[in-house]
Design brief:
Length: 102
């Protein structure tokens, strides 16, 4: 009778250990899954930031080239001053028309 009690006790301990092992496996598995999802979100965020950075760098290069052209090309500078600022040469008459009216 004592032997069957010890065997039952061992089975109960084994079942308890298996249950604890499964519980810990589920717990750590869920932590790993959550961490992986966060990692994926950070990777997506990093890609978006990289794209924005590339776009900003491209805009910067374009503006830098525009400024360099303004400084190096007097004809371009004159054209920009005339078109954007409405400048004219001395003794020059400018006509401006509204684009809204036919």
């Amino acid at each position: 009778m004592f032997k069957s009690f010890a065997t039952g006790r061992r089975k109960a301990m084994l079942a308890m250990l298996i249950l604890m092992g499964l519980t810990l496996s589920l717990f750590f598995g869920s932590l790993i899954l959550q961490t992986y999802r966060e990692y994926q979100n950070f990777k997506l965020r990093e890609q978006r930031v990289e794209r924005k950075l590339q776009q900003a760098q491209e805009k910067f290069r374009q503006k830098e080239a525009y400024i360099a052209r303004l400084l190096d090309d007097p004809e371009f500078l004159e054209r920009v001053a005339r078109e954007r600022l409405g400048y004219s040469k001395p003794d020059e008459l400018l006509f401006r028309f509204d684009e809204d009216q036919p």
